[in-house]
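new request in #modeling-help
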Amino acid sequence: MKFREAKNKFVQTWGALGSQWGINKTMAQIHALLMVSHEPVSMEDIMEELQISRGNASMNLRALMDWGIVYKEYKTGERREYFTAEKDLDELAVKISKERSKREIKPALKVLKEVSSIEADGTEEERHFVEQTSKLYDFVLKADNVLDKMTEHKDNWLAQILIKFMK
Amino acid sequence: MKFREAKNKFVQTWGALGSQWGINKTMAQIHALLMVSHEPVSMEDIMEELQISRGNASMNLRALMDWGIVYKEYKTGERREYFTAEKDLDELAVKISKERSKREIKPALKVLKEVSSIEADGTEEERHFVEQTSKLYDFVLKADNVLDKMTEHKDNWLAQILIKFMK
DNA sequence: AATAAATTTCATTTATTTTTGAAAGTTTAA
DNA sequence: TTAAACTTTCAAAAATAAATGAAATTTATT
């Protein structure tokens, strides 16, 4: 396999993986492209390489920056903007974890707390609902905390954790 | 909030959360419904409660069973099939982890290995590509292993892990 | 302050995913 | 062996999500 082919395959695969995890394909592809680029890339280049429109590129770059995993860069004497991706994978994972927690897990927890707090009358049906949603609340809260604890280990946390579990 | 309202809110929220993580909304809703039902539910009931078609119910129940998190049950003397969800949350998380690993992570790892193994000529561009995809391969492999190790702790693994990290 | 270069926005179009529903298939029991 | 009860399948329709592209906006330059 040659470089061009490999790069393309990587971008496509990362895009597909993104889709499967609820991230829009183009957003994941742009991210992939920036991850393996050794120097900052302009919007023009991204449009060209992924064959997408200016609007699409602009919106997804904005989204990636909102996630905190892509940065704008300026080159002196150049008007156009360049982009780079967070290349430290530990840092990347931490940012994604924190963001998903904030956007998706925390709001879900709020709802779980609400619905598990209803005044259940005596019926088996209601009793079971409250029990199950309470358990779910506890579980999700615990999972969210585990993720938080894991990612607060600063350097090379994944390796450290793996070692911990191995022994 | 009353029971009906709470149940509906839970189902909707679980459905939305599913979408955000790449699981189709109806599939997540059916799962939610079964999770909080104290007794097995028929396809008819599901169609009625979620206002969906027979085909939709059938296909998503099949998918949930393929994931190993919903089971068919038969009632003696009754022809129709009933469904229940895995209610043990530790077990549920383990099954989802294993399945996503098998379906999504493992294939992605295979590609990462391929593309990181190209014969890079001397250019900075190719050198960087190989380095970055290699790192990514290592990272994803490690993450996959961590998940595997975590979920093989049989009982109440999440709590155990949390304790581990607290100290 | 006028022009040029680049970026963002968003109504519309396009693509993708999900859902429907009716026909085909399966199972059970008379 | 057939017919009723129930489930699955899948082509077509509907709903949803994503992408386009041109106008509006912003930013830099003369």
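bot summary: Residues 24-26, 52-56, 59, 79 of chain B lie near DNA strand C (CB under 10 Å from a C1').
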